[in-house]
Structure of Molybdenum ABC transporter ATP-binding protein:
Amino acid sequence: MSLSVKLSHRLPDMELDVAFDAPPGVTVLFGRSGSGKTTIVNAVAGLLRPDAGRVAVGDWVLFDTERGRWLPPHRRRLGYIFQEGRLFPHLTVRQNLAYGGWFAPRGAHRENRDKVVEMLGIGHLLDRRPALLSGGEKQRVAIGRALLASPQLILADEPLAALDDARKAEILPYFERLRDEVSVPILYVTHSAAEVARLATSVVALQDGKAVRHGPAAEVLSDPAVAPAGVRAVGAVLQARVHAHHADGLTELEAGGDHLFLPRIPHRPGETVRIRIAAQEVILANRKPDGLSALNVLQGTVLGIRSGEGPGAIVSVQTRAGMILARITRRSSEALGLRQGMKCHAVIKTVAIAPEDIGGRVIDT
């Protein structure tokens, strides 16, 4: 089931004008604060009435200003996951999970509660009240409540922003399972490149109320012009297969015939993972280096060199594993004699690939 969004709305400090179609899976709205992400989500939810537009999930039209259709929020069949769990404090986890289903229409498809509880690992929490839950546990319950409301669409507005790194690491795998195992489309708001790389089926990059880029995460994150944190957020996204786990604590991945080593990850051999490699963690050499401690050396061809106003440059290198990006100085680029079509080697430190940049299996699009 696909999602179609077209919105125009004038705000005091911005004019929102966006249109995009999103495939099944997780569509991420990605941009700096004030770029229009939450405004879009609120319009889809019916919490904001835009000046003009149309939003539909498959054949289910939430509103269409040209035809005068406007469904109030409680009839839109949405599951909403906020930054905080926003659970009812006087209800148990079991009762919070049941709450969303009370408003589902008769005959609506309902997720199996036991399956959702098992998927989220919250069976031991059912009789507790929210005050006795950790931040990560509250968010897992909030995900379950959204799923059990028989939604046509799930909205997640920066659902990890209020969590520390440990809790984020706990919750991200559940969003991956949600993406891969549930047929309901998900509109997800974030400004974290790591979350985009791990979760996104499709990405809509926003600037000043406009959609400046729309496509797969690998394409959007490779463009420093649209990354919220500028060149520091630029990186490559590769899909690889777990080849083996080694006794020295390393995991070996295989991608396109190239092999990569990284600290051990909790995925079985044969499983597919998605990894993000930050451009600032990649070193380039114009010949195969010798005597290095780095285990990951990939041969490739320079696709292009993009220089900014400062001293830096982003070099894209096509390897068998996929496109790698390197953030180096223009002086280094000139010293190496880098040019389009030239053979080179990309060097990546094993420990430079952070755990939060490694995700589970993804939907092929």
About this structure: The radius of gyration is 22 Å.
